[in-house]
Amino acid sequence: xxxxxxxxxxxxxxxxxxxxxxxxxxxxxxxxxxxxxxxxxxxxxxxxxxxxxxxxxxxxxxxxxxxxxxxxxxxxxxxxxxxxxxxxxxxxx
Length: 93
What we know:
Elements lengths: L2 E3 L4 E3 L2 E8 L3 H10 L12 E4 H9 L3 E2 L2 H10 L16
Parallel strand pairs: 1-5
Antiparallel strand pairs: 1-3, 2-3, 3-4
């Protein structure tokens, strides 16, 4: 399992958020997010947005903290990065 989470530096609605991704599969990501208590409808196409406190919980449960650039590079390298505006996952995911 390789779940990645970047720093919680993205401000929105008075909180700071991080991105939670898998560099293996969407199924792995959905499973991990579900164990964190995140609803499936919170999925943002290729990631989940997680508040800072939940980021810490994700790390405690095994998510690997990485810089944002590394997260994007690994997501792209795995073929799981979805371009903005695309609604369907890549065919091989």
